[in-house]
Amino acid sequence: MTRNPKSAHLSEVSALAEQVLAEVERAVVGKRDALVLVLAGILAGGHVLIEDLPGLGKTLAARSFAQSLGLRFTRAQFTPDLLPADLTGSFIYNQKQGEFEFRAGPLFTGLLLADEINRTPPKTQAALLEAMQEAQVTVEGQTFPLDLPFHVLATANPVEYEGTYPLPEAQLDRFLLRVGFGYPTRDEEWDVLHRRLDRRQEAHRLKAVTDADGLLAMQAAVETVTVDESVGRYCVALASATRDHSQVLMGASPRGALALMLTARAYAVIRSRDYVVPEDVKAVAPSVLAHRITVRPELWMSDVTGASIVRSVLTQVETPGPRQGG
Predict the structure, then answer these.
(1) Residue 196, SS3?
(2) Contact (CB, 8 A) for 225 and 10
(3) What is the pTM of this model?
(4) How far is residue 39's CA from residue 52's CA, in Å, rounded to a whole number?
(5) Which residues, at least 6 apart from 317, have a Cβ–Cβ distance to it below 8 Å?
(6) Each residue of 188-239: pLDDT tens digit?
(7) 45-65 burial, b for 16+ CB within 10 Å, e for fewer?
(8) Under a CB-based contact definition with an 8 Å cutoff, are residues 73 and 65 in contact?
(9) Contacts of 232 (CB under 8 A, 6+ apart)
(10) Per-residue pLDDT tens for 295-326?
């Protein structure tokens, strides 16, 4: 059942977003920029793919966001033998009632951690598509709506890592953002160890800053953020430029331009503004557009990537002038 959230003032949303980030940073050390992007994706109503090598805090970040946002949390460990019904649920025969009843799977939650999503074959990955796009699942011809908010935070190892399957383009396009964490500095790594010694237990206990209704209200407030036409056209120009780039086989679709604008709005709110500036768009562009770009096959063995193409496009496309009256 979809709830109708009460409206929230943008200044309140900015304050809550800062509290959420502060709480998550109690568990995840030294990843502020990446965490801001993940939160921007959630506030924009989207799903986020966290892609990096094992052991860099991807799963911890997803669990921490669920705790701090006060969302019901489920985890699905993606393995080569995972079936679509293991995610969506299935009909089970109830002997007492003498009829089949639907038993919901882990997709029926507030925040789903799709752990190591690229370790399962494409058929099972595709089971997520309907849920991510339509907030519903269909099992044996019956459709079941998901409660809102519903978000997928998926973790993935790089495709060159042994035992992984490349995510289909349609699946990648459903993720609003793809974010990487990278290795910590030595000081940050020692901070991880030091906090573990002080905590005297493995688990992190984070407090809930808000809840499901509160998050819906925050998302509703983000919808009121002002986007000047020049900034909106800048988003279109960036996405369009990826299609015309000489090293690209397939560039970002119009959905990429829309994702760029939606994420920039949420990013602006986190930065305590009620309007979007070009710098917001630039800050989120690599995470929003890079995974929507397919590099020409002859360049696969080179250093050319979706991210490098986005960086190139950012230097080529003219930045709009200052916002009038802002």
Answers:
(1) helix
(2) yes
(3) 0.88
(4) 18
(5) 234, 237, 238, 241
(6) 889 888 888 887 777 778 999 999 999 999 999 999 999 999 999 999 999 9
(7) bbbbbbbbeeebbbbbbbbbb
(8) no
(9) 261
(10) 888 777 777 888 889 999 999 999 988 754 44
